[in-house]
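Exercise 7b. Backbone tokens:
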């Protein structure tokens, strides 16, 4: 092993504070012994903080309309080839009840940034979903006003997922016309102030990204003190400006996930759908590199193939029952078990009654 890797690895293993330079070295772990040591340490940190439980978070992708024109996303507003949809609220609630019957501890309400939904409408959706079962609700609908976030929190939303995508402000602005990293971070801080369990995350392999950028992504996640970090590979969509760009590298994604686990020992890390799309065994590999969450798609079958952030998304051609059974088998084959709880953050503040969360961060 290289001497600089040994030095950075020993700091990581001792729990010492890791610098940007340390993270950069770890992210470049070479195939063979270095990668093996990195993955082994990440798995040990996961085991120490979360045991062998895998938390399932059922996603309902309720709208594929989006006001943004991001260069990497198939839902971008300029994509005229996509058939748009909005799932009626009764179907959303019925799907949530189905998830409750399966024992899910979390429902994720996800959509593009659809301006048709007011804050009040989103709040009503959350209220009805919360009544469908005893689970936490995560919301992922992008950048909204602070008042909308307040309404959703008051309606019972427990968590909010707002991925920062890249910590490089120039790259962010170039890939997301009309938006800025500063506005993204401002909203992440609002969510923290409102008492949400906050999720963010980044893509690996974006055109123009460097390993130093990836290190900055991880440092930003640590600075934000997120409760969940979604880290997955960039996958090009044929109806976007980045259609001819190469996909993110599987090994680099796994190394980024592993370093994230070491840097963020008490943060939930999903084995993302994107990594399962990139490689058939991707999610199982991710579980061995520090991941402790899987987010199965529970959207009704008729809508699944229409939510194309990237093409051929894992599970998009299955029905909800098939998706659930496939994930249950995967977890068992990995030597893990499915948690029966909500999967709240292990941080002390989130072990209290939900009514005490707001204002204490």
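Sequence design result:
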């Amino acid at each position: 092993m290289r001497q600089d890797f040994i030095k950075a690895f020993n700091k990581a293993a001792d729990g010492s504070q890791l610098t940007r330079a340390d993270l950069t070295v770890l992210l470049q772990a070479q195939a063979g012994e270095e990668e093996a040591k990195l993955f082994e340490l990440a798995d040990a940190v996961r085991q120490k903080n979360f045991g062998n439980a895998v938390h399932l978070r059922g996603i309902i992708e309720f709208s594929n309309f989006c006001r943004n024109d991001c260069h990497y996303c198939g839902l971008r507003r300029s994509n005229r080839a996509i058939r748009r949809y909005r799932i009626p609220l009764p179907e959303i609630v019925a799907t949530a009840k189905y998830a409750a019957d399966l024992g899910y501890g979390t429902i994720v309400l996800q959509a593009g940034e659809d301006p048709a939904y007011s804050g009040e409408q989103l709040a009503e959706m959350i209220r009805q979903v919360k009544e469908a079962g005893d689970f936490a609700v995560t919301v992922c609908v992008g950048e909204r006003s602070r008042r909308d976030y307040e309404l959703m929190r008051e309606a019972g939303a427990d968590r909010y997922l707002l991925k920062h995508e890249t910590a490089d402000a120039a790259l962010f602005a170039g890939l997301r016309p009309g938006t800025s990293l500063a506005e993204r971070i401002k909203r992440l801080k609002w969510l923290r102030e409102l008492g949400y369990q906050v999720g963010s995350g980044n893509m690996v392999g974006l055109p123009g990204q460097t390993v130093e950028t990836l290190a900055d992504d991880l440092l930003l996640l640590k600075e934000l003190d997120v409760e969940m970090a979604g880290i997955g590979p960039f996958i090009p969509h044929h109806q976007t400006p980045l259609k001819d760009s190469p996909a993110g590298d599987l090994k680099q994604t796994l190394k980024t996930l592993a370093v994230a686990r070491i840097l963020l020992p008490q943060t939930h890390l999903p084995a993302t759908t994107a990594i399962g799309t990139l490689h058939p065994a991707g999610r199982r590999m991710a579980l061995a590199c520090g991941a402790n969450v899987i987010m199965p798609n529970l959207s009704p079958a008729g809508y699944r193939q229409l939510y194309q952030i990237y093409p051929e998304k894992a599970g998009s051609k299955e029905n909800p029952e098939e998706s659930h059974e496939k994930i249950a088998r995967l977890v068992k084959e990995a030597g893990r078990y499915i948690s029966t709880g909500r999967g709240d953050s292990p941080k002390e503040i989130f072990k209290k009654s939900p009514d005490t969360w707001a204002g204490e961060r």
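Instructor comment: The chain has one domain: 23-337. Confidence is low (pLDDT under 50) at residues 353-361.
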